[in-house]
Amino acid sequence: MSEPVGQFEQIILTAILSLRDEAYGVTIHEKAAELAAPKKISPGAVYVTLDRLEDKGLISSRLANPTPERGGRSKRYYRLEALGERALEESAATAKRVWDTVTEIWGGIATGARRRPKWNPARPR
Amino acid sequence: MESSPSKIAETLVYWLLPPACREEVLGDMRERNQGSAQFLLEAGLTVPSVVYSRIRRTTDTVVTLMAAVSMYTAFVVSARWLAPDMLFHGYGFARLTIPPAILLAAIILADAYSNPTNRWPLKPLLGPTLGLALLYALELNHRTALPAPVLAWGGTFSALLVSSLRLIFPPVTERPQTAKIPAFWQKLELLPLPFNLKSALLPGAVLLAILLCLLIIRA
Hints:
The complex is a heterodimer of chains A (125) and B (219). Chain A is built from four helices and two strands. Chain A is mostly helical and 125 residues long. Chain A has one domain (7-106): Winged helix-like DNA-binding domain superfamily/Winged helix DNA-binding domain (Arc Repressor Mutant, subunit A, Orthogonal Bundle). Chain A has a two-stranded antiparallel ribbon. Chain B has two domains: 7-54; 59-177, no CATH class. The chains are: A mainly alpha (125), B mainly alpha (219). The interface between A and B is medium-sized, with 30 and 30 residues.
């Protein structure tokens, strides 16, 4: 079994996976915000999580050449390592099992076929 | 049109960010920039997280605990020899925790703000030296400050002990790196078990009990 990852780490790993060779601070933050919507994500939280994932050996990083549009500063590009891919696979499989169980009990929530009845205290049991 | 942040704001953020992650974080902030006010607001939200993350990466919990205990012991021993009365009056033992806390904070921040590209053999001694300077600056003109001889001897012995400790166990960033090994595995090889608050409660309680017994006997 690989390193367990939390929900936010899962979002960051997914963002890096989907961005491929263009995964650096700004793009990862944008993609993560898109994945976590409507929740807001601060760039600081993204940097902390990227450091933690790198310490766990799930991702690796490299510093690229400086670019003029960033005031002559470099970008740090991130990529998923084999351990990270395995951790993401496992957490995605868990999420899928949870989703399957929920849809089995509540019915097709995503398709709108059957919704969970709202709780109404006035309604007789 | 893209506006660049003011020079002052950028310079301020440049000095607040640890050198190890300055390049990419400042570049990202510059890329996201929509004006000086937004730049400063983002800096306010980002810099504390980045500093915290750097502290987490550069601090070895076990060595930090060893340093804290050594420094506190040095101050207690100095006070016992030079001003034994202060130990049992006016929260003497509690007052003795302030100088080690200042020294420790300075060492932790010096490690977090050290530049990983600059390597020199005496670099681990920079933190304790800065800490000692900060300690004298903050403590000497303070109402609850320790007596000057205790501060001088305790501070000197603390700095010596911590410097020796840091030469034996260098800061995480100064340890030899092996190519192509993730930091996590490297840490597992080099470091003892991570610090767990629950496991520290029992020894802490025993120490506290011994300390209380000593105080009661003395009274």
